[in-house]
Design brief:
The model has no long low-confidence stretch (mean pLDDT 97). Helix content is 38%, strand content 22%.
């Protein structure tokens, strides 16, 4: 397989080109590195038709065979981890080590998802009747994956959807389609035609998918603003939706932490993948007793971190992925400057090619600052001081978002109690960003609808069907 050229869509088991193309840009140098098909409405219709035709046979395939196919697909990803990793770095920007982790994680996620089972609940087994509730596939799923973790977040959808017996049309972000298209070449060799289709396109393709009557469900990962439009577009046909949306995760750092031990981990909670993680720490509340010490430790560590091209040895943080997000991050930094907030490190635009923003940390801006209230999705972190526990919990919860959060403290039981007061779908104690294919992950409030992962995420791709059988009673002889 040529990982550097020949990027084609997967439709009905065939690798196909489009009548038009999109440019894909390397965010580290702003150079066009590839061109991919820009799907038309007709391309989308063909992909949906292929998925619809494949559905009866795939849904009737014994679940053990579907599991084996998914496991084989995960193994194929792992077997091609090195070229996929290099391709992912080139299109997304993240350093090789992080790209390697994402690719291997994508393979692992499929293999782990293949171990799940669809439950059957016996509701009644009496002299009169037998009743059971089982879970049957929905039909054709439209999956829309984001640019920050294009491979693994696509597998969050592919694994459970196909395991449940659905077929799928997958759309990667136009900023990061390359690794997904090469994954499609692997899938073409392992899955029956039409079970998984992959289409690429620009701004029109997503709305075409969400409004298309041929889909029974849309699974979307992206911003809250776009998620609202997805839900609105899906409403006329009452499509099922799973929406994994934005977050403004708060970390609460208690006064009993060992600052020297946790400073580096807290730094990466905010700045891993250049802050482009929906569950990155976006606001860090630090108790006043250790605020100065932790502030200084974070700044000192930040000055040692290498920002640069993800393909270069030693790079720890790459560029922002795309020009639009780059402009968004710079806008928030400029707003903080205009308001006179104090910058501890960073805050200046990097004067080099590429979408680079230096690691930026702000010193205790006001709670109503944009950099506190909005999701920055970039390498900018506000440190915020607190001295009252009830107050900081209220501040952490005072947001429209509710995706993740974390509590850090030496007294683990106390930290666990605080974690239970945070209004978020996932809350970590003394760590962050740990997700498991065996555990549900989803948001509260405007951070999403539904969940991914675990048995709960698997059931999102099914309909519950209850079957009741009245038992025939034998006539009693006279």
């Amino acid at each position: 397989m040529d990982f550097q050229n020949d990027y084609r869509m997967l439709i009905g088991g065939e690798l196909v080109t489009g009548s038009a193309t999109l440019d894909v840009v390397n965010p580290a140098n702003e150079e066009v590195i590839a061109r991919v098909p820009d799907a038309t409405r007709e391309d989308l219709d063909r992909a949906i038709d292929a998925a619809r035709k494949a559905f009866p046979a795939w849904s009737a395939t014994p679940i053990a065979e579907r599991k084996a196919k998914l496991a084989a697909l995960g193994q194929a990803i792992m077997a091609n981890a090195d070229p996929l990793m290099r391709l992912l770095t080139t299109e997304q920007g993240k350093p090789h080590a992080e790209a390697q982790g994402e690719v291997m994680g994508a393979g692992y996620w499929l293999m782990a998802a293949s171990q799940l089972d669809l439950p059957v609940t016996v509701n009644e087994d009496s002299d009169d009747r037998y009743s059971e509730t089982r879970h049957v596939p929905l039909g054709v799923v439209g999956a829309i994956a984001p640019w920050n973790f294009p491979m693994i977040l696509a597998m969050f959808k592919v694994g459970p959807a196909l395991l449940a017996g659905n077929t799928m049309v997958l759309k990667p972000s136009p900023f990061t389609p390359l690794s997904t298209l090469k994954f499609g070449e692997l899938a073409a060799e392992l899955l029956p035609p039409g079970v998984l289709n992959i289409v690429t396109g620009g701004d029109d393709l997503g709305p075409w998918m969400t409004s298309h009557p041929g889909f029974d469900k849309i699974s979307f990962t992206g911003s809250t603003a776009t998620g609202k439009r997805v839900m609105q577009s899906a409403a006329p046909t009452l499509k099922r939706v799973t929406l994994e949306l934005g977050g403004n995760d708060a970390a609460i750092v208690m006064p009993d932490v060992d600052v020297e031990k946790v400073a580096e981990e807290l730094f990466w909670a905010a700045f891993r993948n250049n802050g482009q993680i929906c569950i990155a720490t976006k606001r860090m509340y630090v108790h006043k007793d250790i605020y100065d010490q932790l502030r200084d430790a974070l700044v000192a560590y930040a000055k040692t971190v290498k920002v640069g091209d993800g393909s270069e040895q030693g790079t720890q943080i790459g560029p922002i992925n795309n020009k639009q997000q780059y402009a968004r991050v710079l806008e928030l930094i400029q707003d903080a400057k205009d308001k006179g907030y104090k910058f501890l490190v960073g805050g200046e635009k990097a004067d080099v090619p590429g979408y680079f923003v230096p690691v930026t940390i702000l010193d205790n801006p006001p709670e109503d600052a944009r950099i506190v209230q909005e999701e920055q999705f970039g390498p900018v972190l506000p440190l915020l001081k607190f001295d009252d526990l009830d107050d900081v919990v209220a501040r952490a919860n005072a947001t429209d978002y509710g995706l993740g959060g974390s509590v850090w403290g030496n007294d683990e039981d106390k930290a666990f109690e605080i974690a239970q007061r945070i209004a978020s779908g996932t809350v970590w104690v003394n760590e962050t960003q740990h997700l498991s294919p065996m555990a549900a992950f989803g948001g509260m409030k405007q951070s999403g609808v539904g969940v991914e992962g675990g048995i709960e995420g698997l059931l999102e791709y099914t309909n519950a069907q209850t079957i009741v059988r009245k038992k025939r009673k034998e006539a009693v002889p006279a």
